[in-house]
Amino acid sequence: MQSDAERKELRRGIQDAVARLDASGVVNLARRLLATSSKPADVMFCTTAFAAVGDALQEQLGARRLKTFVVRSVTVEPILPSLSVEAVLANYVLDLTVGGYGSYADELLNMNSSLAKSQPDLVLILLDLEDIAGRLPDLCADGIGAEVEKEVEECVARVAQLLKNYRAGSTARILFQGVVAPDTSSLGDVGEANLPHSLPHAVQRLNMGLAALCGTITDCVFFDVDRLAARYGRTQWRDARMFYASRLAVSADMFRKYSCGLVRSFSTLFRAPRKVLCTDLDNTLWGGILGEDGPNGIATESAFPGNCYLAYQQYLKQISSRGILLAIVSKNNEADVREAFHIRAADLALGLDNFVAHKISWNEKADSIRELAKELSLGLDSFVFVDDSPEECEAIRQQLPEVAVVEAPALEPWKLVEILSEQSFFDAASVTGEDVTRVQEYKAQAQRAVLASSASSRDEFLASLGIVCSFQSALQAPLSRAVQLLVKTNQFNLTTRRRSAAEVEQFAAEKGGQAVVVRVRDRFGDAGVVGLALARMHGDSCILDSLLLSCRVIGRGIETALLAHVCENALRAGAKRLVGEFIATSKNAPCEHFYTDHGFTRIISSEEAASDSVLYELELTASVPTYPRWITMEGNESYER
Amino acid sequence: MSVEQVPPSLRELLADIFEISPEQVTAELSMEQVDSWDSFRHLQAILALEGEYGVQFDPQRIPELTSVALLLSELKKKGATL
Q1: ipTM for this model
Q2: Residue B82: inside a domain, yes or no?
Q3: Of A309-323, A458-472, A627-641, B63-77, minimum mean pLDDT range
């Protein structure tokens, strides 16, 4: 227990930091104060302090200010200080407005309601069982109630109507809170457990239905408050006295846990999860020190304490199956590590190939993480670092403050998975097909980077990639992908014309017109359709309307291959020259010299000065760009008309 | 009554909740004299006092405890060590 003197000291420190408008000072001291004191007075003290530095939190710490409207049927006001505090600790500043008790339906349905008018960034919908499914307790009273399922469906349908109606008129992110199963019902524990339609069972079904509903609504997350109540104890969760007297649905002791849960849930609507977990090996991925204990001496097996490490490995494998990349950052001899993974393969839950990259050396770990960030083309704020060494952890905190650091408890290895689960950095409310395949794609990316640093020359590197290009009409490839490229590509895009699907079809249909996509794969993976060119004939010139390439594949000669292909088609259509256009934007500098690099000459015309567009031409009768020799062409048929 | 008669721990707690300075928390101070002391802040103060002193107020008495003196005497009646 923190001494009162220390508490007072921290409070004085916070006041001083407020006076200096030192946002990070206020937050850090408040974090320390709140780590040991959940006293309502201290929470309120921090709320007041945070409110005084609201703008500084935004300016100095990049906190996100969210205009937040609470739609509710229960008393929330005493909880709001905790909610504001937990939000600030997660780098949000909430401007809170609370709706009326009885008016939640009107607020969501009426286009002129105070909610609709306030145009919030975030809406928290906090209703009670009574409001969502008031008939359920009675229907469940006999435990076999035939109407329960129908009622649950109807309740979900009613909520669907509220949410869909509100969604149609607002872009606010929505958090919808589920229902807490009452701790007691007239059936008693045994009846509740055994009867198919007991209230706890019905509430479970109701929550599942509501969660599925939220999944179908854009920017809407389901908040499973029942899970929190179960974790911290249902008898602790609600104070019946305060619920009946004041409609307060959460007991005062649980305000912070509840607020934390709310913040963690709505965060998924505003923040992408971190993408990479870098793990240490010795006393983190396995027990013991490989260099001292040898591959057979390290602990990783079904017996204690190896099973604690096994549980961590399983956790890693599980997060990687939803697209979180794993990397090893360890001070070890690489050969020893390879040997350990080989000899102990049967005792380990994952192999070296589950990691997209590894940095096993005696280099500084901060340097290794920097290298990884570069190789994977990801920001440091996407990284999580797990290590048992307090010194290594501190070094990363200081040198790479963007990286989230988790200190593995070397003496209590059974706690590591718990500690990781408490963190919100991998939270995601949905998982897409792209997430699932991401691991493969980044693995390929990292392998290419390693090869690039080992190959002695660029040509040698490119040749070793084994690039294969195939060209197709944009109509043969999924047209949606071509349009997606037109919309999303900024860096290697000569004209940045956002052509529509219909326009792409027109280019393909015209006599002498071209709408070509390029598909690329190499020995590490299939990148899919990554480039597009649109061109049309004008007299004896072929006019290049658009040429673009996904930034993932720039610098491998694919742009040259695409151009060579367009030239071939143009010649076949009877063109004598190719006219290209460059329109500079704030982002497309990488392709600024594309034409001159490929033998084009600039056309100086009087009209040009007026526009941003620069024209280039290439006499096709004189010379034509050739395919880079390190690229293999495939399915190179013609499709001009 | 003077400032001295309100125990410091109570004074500080109420000052935090009502966002006023501890010196303002006199025994005479009542709900109508403090702008921020509305019914919700009142409930918040009650919850804070219950947590701090390990007591439980009777819900029916809660709305009646509208001054520092009343809160103090109710706390004493509940056996709180101030």
Answers
A1: 0.93
A2: no
A3: A627-641
Subunit contact B16:A78, Cβ cutoff 8 A: no
Indicate whether B48 belongs to any domain.
yes
State how far the alpha carbon of A462 is from the alpha carbons of A229, A553, A625, in Å.
57, 12, 18
Cβ–Cβ < 8 Å for A152, A136: yes
Q: Across chain A, what does the average pLDDT equal?
A: 91
Angstrom distances, CA of residue B56 to CA of A239, A242, A393, A611: 11, 10, 45, 77
Give which of A242, A243, A256 to mutate to test B binding, by max B Cβ within 10 Å.
A242
Closest A-chain CA to B43: A78
A51 touches chain B (CB under 8 A): no
Chain B residues with CB-CB distance to A39 below 8 A: 48, 51-52
Is B62 domain-assigned? Answer: yes
Q: Is residue B29 part of a domain?
A: yes
Residue found under tokens 């497309």: A588
CA distance A190 to A583: 74
Domains and CATH numbers, chain A: 63-267 (3.40.50.1110), 276-435 (3.40.50.1000), 460-634 (3.40.630.30)
Cα–Cα dist A348/A286, whole Å:
9
Cβ pairs bridging A and B (under 8 Å): 49
SS3 category, A39: coil
Helix count and strand count (H, E) for chain B = 3, 0
How close B54 gets to chain A, by Cα (Å)?
12
- Domain range for B18 is 3-77
Chain A from 28 to 47: CB within 8 A of any B CB? 39-42, 44-45
CB proximity A97 to B under 8 Å: no
B43 vs A241: CB contact, 8 Å cut-off?
no
Q: How many domains does chain B have?
A: 1
Residues A497-548 pLDDT 10s: 888 888 888 999 999 999 999 998 888 788 788 899 999 999 999 999 999 9
Closest partner residue to A40 among B44, B56, B59, by Cβ? B44
A246 to B50: CB separation less than 8 angstroms, yes or no: no
> What's the rounded Cα separation, in Å, for the pair A278 and A329?
6
CATH of the domain at B66: 1.10.1200.10
pTM, 2 dp: 0.76
